[in-house]
């Protein structure tokens, strides 16, 4: 070791075999140390190490084999991976690569994340590749991987449910044939007859529609503003918005008088409309889609825009008002889009008194989905209790839920402080 560090005029030919081995280890160690220190992204570093191992194994095969075909294959693979070595070593921009090279980098990322235990899909849909190849940041692609993973798990779970239902229908058909062959009445209930019929999915849909129709006739409305379609940076945010609207319609049967839902500012040529048509047309849902603005459909004095950025705190549910929910999936919650639109349209705006009843965690955002806001409004409408309404905020976001007794005491202290001109704190 002293020979290599002090004497700089040495020659490789003058070294023996053991000294050459030591020199190779030192050189490889220095190269790996410099690479690791320069790679700030753990994903690229893992990919680089993996490729370093693969290429080293290829060189070992090339050294041990005397077959010229194996030698040519190893050298060609080295040439094909030169761009990858340069991309990892020089921290090149992802957008500077070609389409084929970007696709190769995405495949490496998916494989690396899967081996690390991250949530990535088994198969990336063809329509998602263009969006992935145009994302320059690794974190953005990881977010999309997680979303595709959840969609894939949902499809698998749905396929398992469909398979189970088909099996149940097959068994029910066999039993029906057995009962008919024995001269008995075919029924879903074994051993006896009944006057109650089986309630299927179509009957459940009919019941939900019957709950919403009286509210539509009485003018009890909730508006979802779909005019933020251009504000969504990513396409899967729009898909998530369609999911939230469908979840809203699926849970209206928990209330005896749910409010009818209007979808205003819905462009007939937009991506939201096409996504609804691809899944289930809006005609199958008991909703009212319209291209018109809510200002053209409802009186302006009845409209109240719900915005988390409003300085007016909502106290009770106004049964004569028409509440507007912004149809936007804003994960960060940093853009005051809803309050800006409410001020431009010159209509009232309010926010939920969430901080009075719920304490959020440090790493959780205060953004709520459309179905959660709808459930909060309907629970407040039927019960008048914010405590019951805010139970629809997921527990994963909440650190503590304040009780009504504690909140009433806080309100009394605030009133006493205003009456006495004292700043009372408890």
Automatic annotation (TrEMBL):
The keyword Acyltransferase does not apply. Its main location: mitochondrion. Transmembrane segments: none annotated. GO terms for molecular function: methyltransferase activity; tRNA binding. Keywords: Coiled coil, Methyltransferase, Mitochondrion, S-adenosyl-L-methionine, Transferase, Transit peptide, tRNA processing. Residues 208-400 form the SAM-dependent MTase TRM10-type domain. GO terms for cellular component: mitochondrion; nucleoplasm. One of its GO terms (biological process) is positive regulation of mitochondrial translation. It comes from the Eukaryota. InterPro entries: MT_TRM10-typ, MT_TRM10-typ_sf, Trm10_C_MTase_dom, tRNA_m1G_MeTrfase_euk. It is found in: Mitochondrion. This is RNA (guanine-9-)-methyltransferase domain-containing protein 1. It comes from Adineta ricciae (Rotifer).
């Amino acid at each position: 070791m002293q020979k290599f560090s002090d004497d700089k005029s040495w020659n490789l030919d003058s070294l023996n075999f053991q000294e050459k081995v030591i020199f190779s280890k030192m050189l490889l160690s220095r190269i790996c140390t410099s690479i690791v220190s320069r790679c700030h992204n753990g994903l690229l570093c893992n990919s680089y190490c993996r490729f370093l191992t693969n290429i080293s194994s290829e060189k070992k095969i090339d050294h041990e084999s005397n077959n010229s075909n194996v030698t040519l294959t190893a050298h060609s693979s080295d040439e094909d991976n030169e761009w990858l070595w340069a991309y990892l070593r020089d921290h090149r921009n992802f957008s500077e690569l070609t389409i084929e090279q970007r696709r190769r980098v995405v495949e490496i990322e998916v494989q690396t994340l899967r081996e690390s235990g991250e949530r990535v899909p088994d198969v990336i849909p063809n329509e998602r590749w263009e969006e992935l190849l145009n994302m320059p940041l690794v974190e953005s692609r990881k977010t999309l991987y997680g979303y595709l993973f959840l969609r894939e798990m949902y499809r698998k779970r749905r396929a398992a449910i469909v398979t189970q239902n088909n099996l149940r229908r097959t068994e029910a058909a066999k039993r029906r044939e057995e009962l008919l062959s024995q001269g008995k009445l075919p029924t879903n209930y074994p051993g006896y007859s009944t006057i109650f019929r089986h309630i299927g999915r179509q009957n459940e849909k009919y019941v939900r529609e019957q709950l919403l129709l009286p509210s539509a006739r009485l003018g009890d409305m909730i508006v979802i503003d779909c005019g933020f379609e251009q504000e969504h940076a990513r396409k899967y945010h729009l898909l998530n918005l369609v999911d939230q609207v469908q979840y809203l319609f699926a849970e209206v049967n928990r209330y005896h008088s749910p409010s009818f839902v209007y979808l205003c500012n819905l462009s007939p040529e937009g991506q939201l409309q096409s996504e609804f048509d691809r899944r289930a047309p809006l005609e199958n849902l008991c909703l009212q889609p319209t291209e018109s603005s809510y200002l053209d459909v409802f009186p302006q004095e009845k409209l109240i825009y719900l915005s988390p950025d409003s300085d007016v705190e909502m106290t009770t549910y106004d049964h004569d008002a028409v509440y507007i929910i912004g149809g936007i999936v804003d994960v960060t919650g940093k853009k005051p889009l809803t309050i800006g639109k409410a001020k431009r349209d010159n209509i009232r705006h309010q926010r939920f008194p969430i901080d009075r009843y719920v304490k959020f965690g440090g790493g959780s955002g205060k953004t709520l989905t459309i179905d959660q806001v709808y459930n909060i409004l309907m629970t407040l409408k039927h019960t008048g209790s914010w405590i019951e309404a805010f139970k629809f905020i997921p527990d994963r976001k909440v650190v503590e839920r304040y009780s009504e007794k504690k909140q009433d005491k806080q309100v009394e202290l605030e009133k006493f402080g205003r009456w006495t001109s004292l700043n009372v704190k408890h």
